[in-house]
Amino acid sequence: MASRKYDLVVFGATGFTGRLVVEYYLRTYGPPSPSFQWAIAGRNQDKLRKVIQELETHKGVPESKYLETLIGSSEDSVFLDALTKQTKVVVTTVGPYGKYGSKLVAACAANGTHYADLTGEVPWIAKMIASHENTAQASGARILHCCGFDSEPSDLGAHVLYNAMQKRGLTPTEIKFVLGSSQGGVSGGTVHSLADAMMSPVEEMTNPYILLPDKKKGSMTVKQTRGVWWDQDVRRWNAPFIMAGINTRVVARSSHLMDRVPFTYLETHSFPKGLWGCLQACMLTVAVGVAMVSMAIPPIRWIVLKVIPPGSGPSENARKKGYALIYLVGKGLNKEGKEEVVKGSVRISGDPGYQETAKMLAETGMALAKDKLSVQGGFHTPASALGDTLVARLKRRNLIIEVEE
């Protein structure tokens, strides 16, 4: 890979999140240079030029004019083959991935090119693993899915907490991810990806172990959450977390790949103590159920997709006001067989689904391009491939995943 022209290419640079990734790279690492050669790619030259012009004139990033552009479609296998032969890493925001991502994954796996995306389409990930795992292992390509708010805080949070318990001499028995206070927007691309995933067979959508080799329970047991209940560990009302159906699958795969001891894992969305908090938890539970059922009904899904087009998303002002605080709770047995509790947190300053998701994907790409990694090729998770390396990168950029002393 040392002879490749680019360290990294951002594919899908004209989309809402793609533009954020490009802006992040420019502001954080600067334009292409001998120490970091990178480019942007998409199917429309005019739209790519418009992105560069907007960054230069409206965002105050004049260095954008030095970006190289690569033109081609996610459906063009010849273009994708050429693209993946000249870069070490591709980070892609082109979704829904089930529609537009399969050929790029195949090209990366075949050409030994590392890959990171933002998909939350778990059944599609399972298909990619089944189709290209052996090829990626042979070529050395490290393929990473779910490298944004779904599912890096969950995956890296579980990784940090699990390791902390082991360092303290505990045998982990339970890890809990509890979303506390948060604020963020939703983009059209996310809605379209969710709608695409909802068309998968029910057994694929509901199997928490679908990303494991035999699609059966491994070392980690996913605890299903239903209804509303009081959580004494965080002293908050808990409700189901809409992203748990993605995150738990990724953490389960990490546990398998990293050969962890058996433990239970669950994710919840929490609200403050008191009657109002309980009421909020109840309302969210109902809202999530209605939303999931509605998106499964073709006429309603069609209307939603028409009303919320791809490429739309929260304003810059709204993104800056966004945030998320996640509570991590781990339980383990000490040498005397007594249970001890270890707590941690994930603190996100900025819209978790867009501003900070762009940061997570960008830093994942940088880790794949620049850091020395011990894992071989194959379909990994953020935790199994990058682990502490990525945690440290994100901490330097004010996204903190840590355990209480």
TrEMBL record:
List this protein's GO terms for biological process: glycolipid biosynthetic process
GO CC, alphabetical: plasma membrane
Q: InterPro entries under this entry?
A: NAD(P)-bd_dom_sf (IPR036291), Saccharopine_DH-like_oxidrdct (IPR051276), Sacchrp_dh_NADP-bd (IPR005097)
Which superkingdom? Answer: Eukaryota
Q: Which residues form the Saccharopine dehydrogenase NADP binding domain?
A: 9-141
Give the family, as the similarity comment puts it: Belongs to the saccharopine dehydrogenase family.
Q: What is this protein called?
A: Saccharopine dehydrogenase NADP binding domain-containing protein
